[in-house]
Amino acid sequence: MRDVVVHCHPVEGSFSSAIRDAAVRGLISAGHDVTVLDLAAEGFRCVMTRGEWDSYMSGDATIPDDVAHHVRAVRDAEILVFTYPTWWSGLPAQLKGWLERVMLPGVAFTLESRRVRPALDHVRRIVVASTYGSPWLYVKVINDNGRRTLTRALRASTGWRARCRHVGLYAMDTATDDDRREFLVRVERAVAR
Amino acid sequence: MRVLVVHAHPSPESFVSHLRDAALDELAAAGHEVRHRDLWAEGFDPVFTADERLTHTGDLAAKLERHPELAPHVADLRWCEALVLVHPTWWSGQPAVLKGWFDRILMNGVAWRLPEGANRIEPMLGNVRRLVVVTTHGSPKWVNALQGEPGKRTALRSVRLMFTLGCRASWVAMYGLDRASEGRRAAFERRVRRRLRRLR
CB of B94 within 8 A of CB of A153? Predict the structure, then answer.
């Protein structure tokens, strides 16, 4: 199987990198091929330009050069894994912008007479692994908006066929080394199951 | 009232940008003091950098010296009594440039502080007592309800909690823009104008 890990964290070598690596390890040990899209490392431009917006609206399906390799990876993918920190209850801007610039008409959905049809029907599973500064209860009260964006809005583009798994490490600022180690094990297991 | 309008749309000719113009008209007519930030027009970079991550609990003044482009946004946010956000809803939430404005401007020492040993942040933007969000959704309301309205909850819960306790919020949203008639658009513009004319 071909899988894509989309990773978004500004600091290489942070705990977030360890989460990405745990996800990759889990997928490889299950015998999958993995493509890692490391947004910060490649300096992914997450803001749509005026020109891109105009072609989006005119139904022009041109794929911008700098996202072509992202589109290729996503079109082949059976599993999409997202590793990121949750900020302001949502996705980091760079990851949010990845959805906007990569999940284009013709990639994530098609527009037929102004009706949206899902096009990610090859994706069987979406796995979300995120860290949170806030404790679990606080996240539940505010709502886990980044998670919802991926497991609902993006999942809709799979025709609601993809199964979703989510693993979260809450209250990061007071998490112990044991909590962190245990979390990495959970990530490694979650992606492969 | 001192009102900060933050606008996020790539095209000045879009319906959303037109709504922003309508909002600015009404605010000026009502005699408010207005500052306006057009994030696309000014090329705001929404990506939280490694330096900001590594110093996110560090000294504010030093950080603003290293990232001088953030300082005017911080000043605007501390100045305002009302924050008006105007943006399209994409993938169920704020466009990346506006999400990144939250990520970068709502920083430690400005919007919140984290007491020693705690994992719950404390709000600092007590000056903001009014939040208005004007947004459009391409898809119908039931689709957004099914998705759980992440953008709405981000603004009205997560971000608003940094403002004064009891900060009033208005969600002025249009759904189904992709298939909306001219009449529905005009009706929504009237609703936006009415809401901002009566801003208190």
Answer: no
